[in-house]
Amino acid sequence: MVELSAALAGQHNNILAKMVPSPIRVVDDKFSTIDGILKLTLGEPDFAAPEHIKQAIIRDVQADDSHYSSSQGVLALREAISDYLVDRFDTPRYDPATEVSVTVGAAEAISATFQALFNPGDELIVPTPTFPLYASVAQTLGIEVIGLNTAPDFIVTPAKLTAILTAHPNAKAILLNYPSNPTGVTYSETELKALVAILREHQLFVIADEIYAELVYDAKHTSMARLLPEQTVLISGVSKSHAMTGYRIGYVVGPAELMKQVGKAHQAMVATAPGPMMAGALEALRNGREDPEKMRVVYEERRDLVLAGLAEAGFTAAQPGGAFYIFAKIPDFLNTNDTEFVYDLADTVKLGVAPGSIFGAGGEGYIRISYAASTENLKSAITRLKHYVDLRK
Could you tell me which residue ranges the Aminotransferase class I/classII large domain spans (predicted)? Predict the structure, then answer.
């Protein structure tokens, strides 16, 4: 072990020093020390990437694609992203040369977008419960996050939006993640249009994280990039849609003036996404349009399986319209301190789920269950949960 010079101790980034590691990963790492635990903590598809995508990557490696590409991504992939968004979600056609950037996952897309749009002290409205990464990235940049508690329906309504804008008239942007991580709740076109009327009046930037757009069950996904393109920066990728989380390909699209700044931030962080992984993403978007549908059918069956099991155990949950998460309310006859609950659940029946409070205001007293796991494991999880409830009643 190397000891840091005593004279240099504490001389690091003070903002980062105040930050805690990803709370989801902290919980998951603790559960990993429990022998025989069944974890439903991470949003990690249990499917393998489709074979034709893997073969496209292999061919690209064999063709010696081991050098820098354009910093914003290979042009063919940017063209494919533009075409895909038009074909699947009826967005405007984004100019591949000036309005599309390929990033190292959606996480890097979030960082680059925040760097491009905000100055220290700017206000960003973030509906909660939500993915903790947004607040972490904002904190490193000195962005003031204005939380908007959406419990118990987990939807931003026109009334809630109007109230928060009245209280914070200088807010620069709002972040909308839908289908939502952690709740799985999404928006209808009618609901979004009602928000758009307010957002257009107030001239806010909209950062739309639509990474789960292909995993919508009850209606077609409506993109903010279709309804309000002049104010929207759209973030997405192939991680969830094509089970390519480890391949780390995301993208950002938006008006050229904004994307010029996003591109600078991206270039400064990573230079470029890796060539073989971009070849896989190109294959996914050009020839893998049907791949998400096969997974979506299975996910929907799993959603219904888990919802039914939760109801039998006495839990309630908002209906997940997409993604692969269920945000379930802990019943009053159990310990409703969600952190204490999940650790006791893990210790008692070896079932790992995420405490709702780590996702921000409105998450207290809830648990997040990821059903991106095998059907066999989900059935076992429900059995363990019911056993736990019987023990604690």
Answer: 37-385
